Amino acid sequence: MSWWLSFSEIFRNFGLIFGGILGIYLAWQRSVASSRQADASLRQADLARRGHVADMFNRSVGQLTHEKLEIRLGAIYTLRQIARDFPDLSRPTLELLSAYLRESMKQYGAGEPPVDVAEITETLRNDLVQQ
Fold first, then answer.
1. Sign of dihedral through CA atoms 102, 104, 106, 111?
2. Other C-beta atoms within 10 Å of 38: how many?
3. Which DSSP symbol is given to 113?
4. Domain ranges in the chain?
5. Reduced to 3 states, what is the DSSP secondary structure of residue 131?
6. Rg for the chain (alpha carbons), in Å?
7. Does residue 79 contact residue 93 with C-beta atoms inside 8 Å?
8. C-alpha angle 22-24-26 in degrees, rounded to nearest 5
9. In whole angstroms, what is the distance from residue 121 CA to residue 99 CA?
10. DSSP 8-state code for residue 18
11. pLDDT per residue as tens, the chain (131 positions)
12. Full 3-state SS string of 19-79
């Protein structure tokens, strides 16, 4: 009978070891799946944010030529913030503002430029100092 107790303890211990290994494996699999799901959620959130920024960019570009000064200023401030928050969009945004500034300065020549043109000049000057 003692050999049976010895065998049953050995069998029980192997069962516990096997159960522990299986539990660790299943926990690892669940962790990997959760990590993949979290990564996918982060990518999706980033894509949604970039889509929102693209919409803001396009809307602001259209508002640069609006007749009301406050709307033009809002567009300039939005484009400035986009350039600061998204380094990969900084150069295209500043090039757009530079092109708008060049075209606007033709209209005013030596006269005093309006507030929006002065704000673009200040934005571009500050950006060059930061770089």
1. negative
2. 10
3. P
4. 2-130
5. coil
6. 31
7. yes
8. 70
9. 11
10. H
11. 676 668 788 889 999 999 999 999 999 999 999 999 999 999 999 999 999 999 999 999 999 989 999 999 999 999 999 988 888 888 999 899 999 888 877 777 677 778 888 888 888 887 755 65
12. HHHHHHHHHHHHHHHHHHHHHHHHHHHHHHHHHHHHHHHHHHHHHCCCCCHHHHHHHHHHH
Q: What size, in residues, is the chain? A: 131
* The two three-digit tokens of residue 120, written as one number: 């673009």
Q: Tokens 């990969």 — which residue?
A: 88
Q: Which amino acid is at 71?
A: I
Amino acid symbol at 69: L
Residue 115, token pair as written in the block: 């507030």
Residue matched to tokens 């060049």: 102
User: Tokens at residue 33, please?
Assistant: 């799946």
Burial class (CB in 10 A: 0-12, 13-18, 19+), 60: buried
- Phi, psi torsion values for 87, nearest 5 degrees: -55, -30
